[in-house]
Design goal:
The protein has 7 helices and 20 strands. With about 325 residues, it is of the alpha+beta class. The chain has a domain of about 210 residues: Acetoacetate decarboxylase-like. The strands form 4 sheets. Strands 1, 2, 3, 4, 5, 6, 7, 10, 11, 12, 15, 16 and 19 form a 13-stranded mixed beta sheet that branches. A 3-stranded antiparallel beta sheet has the order 13-14-20, with no helix packed on it. This is Protein NEOXANTHIN-DEFICIENT 1. It comes from Micromonas pusilla. InterPro entries: ADC_dom_sf, NDX1-like.
Length: about 325
């Protein structure tokens, strides 16, 4: 366990569980990540992207978590493969291996769940911690023992937040489906070859094999939100709407100016919104920089466009064993 990524040890084995969701992604967004000389499999302006979220219990790097945002489906005869637009891991050895050996855009991130924020009357039945939902018999028994306190048995989905490994800034939030309620699904074998490369560390186009054995089942979708959306929704939830009162008096929260004060207020408002004043008083935002010194945009709109694609299908891989072969250089056709 955690013996490291040695070239002679390939294929490297990973075991754990994963969620794999296919999304419809706009071709214009996918093109921002796929090399220009590679063909994109598309129809009516859309291609197949998605999200891959894994919790590895054993790997050459030991135990770690991974999230891959799949930008689109690439065609390089005779194979079509998904192209990774973003890769986030919470282990430095896994990140270094992805960048230097596999030619992946791997970055360090923290995977924080919101379990500590939940109240005592809420139960999480989620995939992240693999908490199985209560059976009908267990719910009935708990209801009888605790009386009519139904709130104790309310459940909600888990939310996992990815935070930048350098700054701690939130990258995205993923609302995860529930864990499997019944026995394991059928066990299947899958071969999923993948393309990578075209990076500064690995400029060649690379291809590597991926052989998977897992019990599969259909799952609920992974729903994503950006930091801006999370902040907005939280502010809207905490906002207290003003009370409405009928009659002569103004509603609570409204301010009525005398005519002279209203004219003065309108004049100052129009002056403040004029282009000259706005441009002169505005302060330029300086992009935040990571520990490596590279500028980081305030929000990753390109990542959001992939994660917020239309979900088509989400598959859960349980008791997963995955063998990843060493990448080899291939020619673009």
């Amino acid at each position: 366990m955690g013996k490291g990524y040695r070239d002679g040890d390939a294929p490297w084995r990973f075991s754990g569980r994963a969620l794999y969701q296919l999304n419809l992604v706009k071709s214009s967004e996918a093109r921002k990540h796929v090399p220009a000389d590679l063909k994109l499999v598309e129809l009516f302006g859309y291609t197949l992207g998605g999200v891959y979220l894994a919790r590895y219990e054993d790997s050459p790097a030991g135990t770690f978590d991974e999230m891959v945002a799949l930008g689109g489906l690439v065609w390089n005869p005779p194979t079509s493969c998904a192209w990774a637009a973003r890769v986030f891991v919470n282990d430095e050895r896994a990140r270094a291996h992805g960048v230097k050996t596999c030619g992946l855009p791997s970055a360090l991130a923290r995977f924080d769940d919101d379990d500590e924020k939940s109240d005592a009357e809420t139960r999480r039945d989620g995939w992240w911690k693999n908490v199985k939902p209560l059976s009908v018999f267990a719910k009935a028994r708990a209801f009888v023992l605790d009386g009519k306190n139904k709130k104790r048995f309310m459940s909600r989905s888990e939310t996992v937040r990815l935070r930048d490994g350098d700054t701690g800034a939130e990258v995205c939030a993923l609302a995860l489906p529930g864990a499997g309620a019944g026995p394991l699904g059928p066990r299947i074998n899958l071969k999923l070859p993948s393309f990578s490369g075209r990076t500064s560390a690995c400029p060649d186009l690379l291809k590597y094999s991926l052989d998977m054995r897992a019990n599969v089942r259909l799952s609920g979708p992974i729903l994503a939100e950006t930091e801006t959306e999370a902040t907005t929704s939280a502010a809207q939830a905490n906002a207290v709407p003003p009370r409405k009162q009928n009659g002569f008096w103004a509603p609570t929260g409204d301010v009525r100016f005398p005519p002279a004060a209203a004219l003065a207020s309108a004049a100052s408002l129009s002056l403040a919104q004029s282009p000259a004043v706005t441009d002169a008083g505005a302060e330029k935002e300086v992009p935040e920089k990571s520990a490596s010194g590279t500028p980081r945009p305030p929000a990753d709109a390109e990542l959001a466009a992939i994660l917020r694609g239309k979900p088509l299908l989400c598959i859960a891989f349980d008791a997963m064993e995955m063998d990843v072969g060493a990448p080899t250089a291939v020619a673009a056709r």
